[in-house]
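Progress against Task 2.4 (sequence-to-structure conversion) is shown through the following example record, which the project officer requested during the mid-term review.
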Amino acid sequence: MTGRLQDQVAVITGGASGIGEETARLFVEHGARCVIGDLQDERGGKLAAELGAAAHYVHADVARPDDVAALVDAAVERYGRLDCMFNNAGILGAVGPIAGMATDAWLRTMDVLLNSVFYGIREAARVMIPQGSGTIITTASTAGVRAGLGPHAYTAAKHGAVGLSQSVANELGRHGIRVNVIAPGGTVTGLTANLTTGDPDALEEARQRMGVDAPLGRPGQPRDIANAALFLASDDSAWVNGAVIVVDAGGEVNATKNMRFVEMGSQIVQEAGRRGV
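Structure tokens generated for the chain above:
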């Protein structure tokens, strides 16, 4: 039995840890060969060595267009083609009130979270258009489809990543290339562990804390997001283009907040709090 990505080639940015690492593992399980791009050389090299001949690590800062181009070139030179570009690398970026936000922090956030997606799409397209096929996937966030779920710069960048992906989906679709977005909710990674516990390695503690208010009783795990990436990279999603797949157990629709209305029982609340018809 062959895998769902048998003999396909993928580039995964931010592939040394978290969602990217789990996606690389899953893609290789399904027969793909992966170029892993990251700044974490020790972790990236160790992962590639563990995955064997099916994986290759390349040091890359996705805020640098030449580094993103080098990832695509490495895939073609090493494996002969490029079937999936997964723009996954990210940071939280600039935080704090808008009036005091530093320009350099804002620009760095846009470089990593938005400009990198442009570079990834552009570099993938130059290979995939002559090839006549391919999939491009970007990790956005629920903060990219709804304001109020992340810092200002992060929210703006993720909205931009969604808009750019949907804007080019029709153009590239004419060349047999599908462009889609995954919008994860709270997922247990080093980034969220650092936010919730102050320690990026405290994944179990983060899982427990993040699970308290999770709609399905647990927070997201990297494999949950990797499964969505596998779907979008495979022929199972052959009729999916320009989509934003929210993977957050219903958190984006405020499931837990809505429960206070459910718990009031069956009634109607009208003007000034009057109840009943």
